[in-house]
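I'm stuck. Protein, please.
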Amino acid sequence: MQRLEIQNLAIIDSLELELGTGLNVFTGETGAGKSIIVDAIWLLTGARGDAELVRHGQDSLLVTGFWENTTLSRRVQANGRSTARVNAEVVTNRELSSIAADLVTVHWQHAAQALLEPQFHREFLDAGLDGTGKDSLEKYRVVYRAFSEASARLEALREGERERARRADLLIYQLREIDDAKLEANQEQPLRTERERLLNAERIAQDMGIAVDSLEDAEVNAVSLLADAARALSNVARFDSDAAQLGTDLREAVSSIQAIASEARDILERTNLEPGALDGVESRLALLEKLKAKYGATLLEVLEYANELRAELGDLDRAASDASDLEQQLEPLRNQMESLASKLSKVRRDTAKRVTPQLEGIVQSLGMPKARLEFGFERCPPNINGAETLEIKFGANPGEPLGSLAKIASGGELSRVMLALSSVLGSGTPSVIFDEVDAGIGGAAAISVGEQLERLSIGHQVLVVTHLAQIAARATQHFKVSKLEVKGRTKVVVEKLNGENRVFELARMLSGSDSRAAVEHARELLNAR
């Protein structure tokens, strides 16, 4: 990171830091705001942006970090909303976190406490996997997710099997009830018309009888009268051509009236022959009303509902088929998952053998010359991280068996193990941040921690917040963080120290004063580098 800009974060109003390569150290009185700088970098990694971090009276805070080819920024508003950007383009926090993971590693204050939880031990080892190892882990996770998702779907299908059977029975009953009715969308109105006709059958028969009699059946009827008239016209046609045409027209009229009479007779006979027809029509209409009451306001809606029933039955059938398919898929997925878990376990064990001597060497150099470390592995049911748990075993004293690091290590020992893990396994990014990694240590161990941080800074940019002069003396760049009151408001000032200013700060850290002895001791630390 070449530069860090901070605006309106906690008690920082505006701050610009030009950072260098090597070891960058931040010192200052307790409460001066040193850790706020780490909080700012932590925001750039996608950490949760709490509205309480915004400086009182301001609308938002803004943190921007500049690397060689990448700029990360994070704005957090007083209402809690935040915006992340990469090279000035808006991204999600997840995208910001993913990009930041390749640029910076933050070991926050009290990070060593993570070692009290064995589940974090696997994360440290996995961070040290080489490319092949990381590929093995990712392949395993892909297959594990596929297996888990298939298992979950199958379990859900099995749990719902009885309910699906009950649902299918209901759907089949409803669909059969609709299909048996042989519905047509427009059949209702003709039935209502037919019912009206049948309700008035007596009157229809009476009137149609009169019509048939008048047209053709009565002793004196329209057909016979018109026929007589037609014959008379035919007789006149011999003498008058106009009468001939009239005769022709009248004969055609007789034929039409005879046809009308025939149809009227059919209506009369049909009416007399349908004593039970009304019951049939009434029953059919009642069935249609029943179906509409249950399945839709109109017959068209009832038919549409029937199509929905068929679709749902198809889904239920597919669910049963899916369950069968999933059962067939699970076994090869399980075999593949177990095979990949075995490969991943071997990769981890090989990595543990490779890094354990390095870890022990660093821990021993940090004031624990007899310390020993190893990774203990135990099989467990498969999960997203593999089919094993692992825990760091630790022993500080010769002749004693190794035990759980979380149970037997002191606070100072945890800090030194954390530094060793960070140096060997957690330094895959160009920038590495340590917030008070020196907690719980002092004396010769502090000197060793400083040496280790200095070694780490050869290949990485290291930023350290520390209270120990033994560490600060090894800085490539030394920054002093102070808290001032300006116009009734507290603000943070960061000063880059050189020459005598740096000597006096180291003296303060050593004894709390700039006494002659403290100053001489500070000079000795600087000259001993």
